[in-house]
Amino acid sequence: MMSAQNRTATHVDCHDLSAILRDLAAYLSESELLSAFESRCGALLRVAGVALQVCDGEAAAADEKPLLDLTLKFNNQTRHLLLQPTLPGLSDQARKALLDAITVSLGDFYARILAEATTPDPPASAPTPTTAAAIPPAPTVAIPDDLVSAFAHKMRNNLSAMMTAAGQLGDTGLIDTNPDTTMLIGVVESAAEAQRRLIDRFVMLSRPVVVRLTRFEVTPLLRAVMQRYAAVNGNHLELNGLEREVVIETDRALYQVILSEMIDNGLEASLRHAIVLDAVVRDQHFELTFRNDCAPLPPYVVDNMLKPFFTTKTGHAGLGLPIALHYARLLGGTLRHRCGREDAEFTIAVPLSNEELIR
Predict the structure, then answer these.
(1) What distance lies between CA 121 and its chain's CA centroid?
(2) Which of 75, 97, 242, 350 is geometrically suited to a Cys-Cys bond with 199, CB 3.0 to 4.6 A?
(3) Angle (CA) 150 152 154, round 5°
(4) Model confidence pLDDT, tens digit, residues 325-348
(5) DSSP SS3 for 69
(6) 24-43 pLDDT tens trace
(7) Closest CA to 176 of 167, 185, 189
(8) Nearest residue to 324 (alpha-carbon basis) of 300, 293, 347, 292
(9) pTM (2 d.p.)
């Protein structure tokens, strides 16, 4: 590996995947880079039907345009890295979502590598450590087979819709002004957008996450998130219970995602587009209960609503509540739910403080 002084001038944009990979190739061996790629992105690539190929020369021509086609140098040896879709019909939106997800995962890894490499050497008088400090690995996520299967099934449904509509658009009998053409183009665009959102949300549920704790007053964040939803015509949100300011120590970004997912879920279920939020501090936890009216729910819906990809809503992936539950657990908290005949309650509880990062 290169020395720290040789690395100080090679910072690259952590949002530029090609630059990240080129810089890592100058710093890591080929096997180390491929191992990092597999541990952070392998599961996502497999379920999305994308193959990682590395070869000496240019790869053989394929039916589908590659997501990434990049030449790298490892110790003056030129290698060709290719991310090649193995399923036809991957939309431009889905391609961008996949590349964004890969960039986030490898960008975090790259930032850790760079931070370690650019740490100044200790003074000569300082004792030399017996072992070098290891770069902390990103937490690994074991994705259950049933989750992968459900994700792949929904991906195939979107691909099927796009390919069927695209095939009909190829009919020479259709012209631009034909209403059928407009309808088919709408089908392709809708399925492509659904595919992109599916990948984005699956990544939220399956990607390794490092929790970054900060202390902040919770009321301003709550009111800001609520205001965003209240600005939409017809929505009504009410907050009760915060007579005094409450400071919590948690990951602000993850907690904000939880709030958004819970409000989205409640407003979609409410017949009146209304949610009441009740806040309370109990047993060293900050509890926030989301209450909304709803149509009567069968027992099997109540029993399965926290499971990924379970949904009764047309056009929805069924990942909102599972994402909220996943992030609540990452923050050391819980998600409880109770459903009555005409109402539902979901309570998110997170610790007021945390001793250490929860991975």
Answers:
(1) 36
(2) 97
(3) 70
(4) 999 999 999 999 998 888 899 999
(5) strand
(6) 887 778 888 888 888 777 77
(7) 185
(8) 347
(9) 0.58
